[in-house]
Amino acid sequence: MALFGFRRAEAVADSAPLRDFLKGYSIEVMPRTAAKVEDFRKLLPAGTRVYIAHLDGTPIEEMVATAARLRREGYDPMPHFPARIIPDRAALADWIARYRGEADVRGALLLAGGVPSPAGEFHSSMQLMETGLFDGFERLHVAGHPEGNRDIDPDGSDRMVAEALRWKQAFADRSDARMAIATQFCFEAQPVIAWADRLAAEGIRLPIHIGVAGPAKLQTLLKFAIACGVGPSLSVLQKRARDVTKLLLPFEPTEFLNGLAAHKQAHPGFGIEAAHFFPLGGIGATADWIIEHGGSDVAPALHEKD
């Protein structure tokens, strides 16, 4: 296990805006990747919100077991509920009961899901919200797409995406749950800033948790970016791929996050509230990067090598 945290006081190139921006960050895992982590307490500060991605075909038992383990180790598990892989209302009610009873789950990310055809009666996160089965959850997060989503808007616009966000804002206005938008990962600050400002101008006030790709090999990021439909900011990776001197170096989100952090400092009312990390190069590498750049440390006793 790599050493984390003790380098924090040394000459690490972070800034006050970035340190502030990293407060309250969250991170995403899958059951199969979580199973490879011996102890999350060696990597993440206590209380960190950990999203659990639910890919089609993952048994609900594995999802619930991962959530329960994270709760035991002192974290706030937030499982995905992809509408299109849920067979019916009874299955949804069963999933919720298991999460609440076995893992004390208090929050959920509701999304359509990345499969083309619904398995049952649900095809959108709005339908999940309308069931009323999430009443009593402290947090309900929904998906955001700063660069659009061609599954929803095949014409390349964001008309349907924007309409859905307006519906979700209205739901938030009449709900007791704390709601936020958790987005796909991006690589370029200015388009994200413009997107967030446009949402605010259209009356969508849900706080935004911006998706950030953790440090990873360039080839790995390109593969995930293409698979996940990342749009215009993909050019940032493609430009780097043409630079032979950088091709073999890990890509880090420093420039992207510094841009957002500086804008947040200059505009305190800016709609992006937190960073949400996708550890595409491994959760250890991402946790290490966050600590090096001013993110919360973990207990010193846990930094020792295994």
How is the topology of this model organized?
Blueprint: H1 16-22, E1 26-29, H2 31-34, E2 49-52, H3 60-72, E3 76-82, H4 89-103, E4 107-111, H5 125-130, E5 139-144, H6 159-173, E6 178-186, H7 189-201, E7 208-213, H8 218-227, H9 234-241, H10 254-266, E8 272-278, H11 283-292
Parallel strand pairs: 1-2, 1-8, 2-3, 3-4, 4-5, 5-6, 6-7, 7-8
Helix pairs in contact: 1-10, 3-4, 7-10, 8-9
Task: Summarize the structure in words.
- The protein has one domain: TIM Barrel.
- Helices cover about 35% and strands about 15% of the residues.
- It contains eleven helices and eight strands.
- It has an eight-stranded parallel barrel, surrounded by four helices.
- Strand 3, helix 4 and strand 4 form a beta-alpha-beta unit.
- Helix 8 runs antiparallel to helix 9.
- The longest helix has 15 residues.
- The chain starts with 15 loop residues before the first helix and ends in a 14-residue tail after the last helix.
- The N terminus and C terminus are likely disordered.
Kindly report the CATH topology: TIM Barrel
Structural class: alpha/beta
Q: Record the strand order, biggest sheet.
A: 1-2-3-4-5-6-7-8
Q: What order do the helices and strands follow?
A: HEHEHEHEHEHEHEHHHEH
Largest sheet: 8 strands, parallel, barrel
Distinct helical segment count = 11
Radius of gyration: 19 Å
Q: List the uncertain runs.
A: 1-13, 299-306
Tell the overall outline: globular
Strand content: 15-25%
What's the level 1 CATH class?
Alpha Beta
Overall pLDDT metric: 85
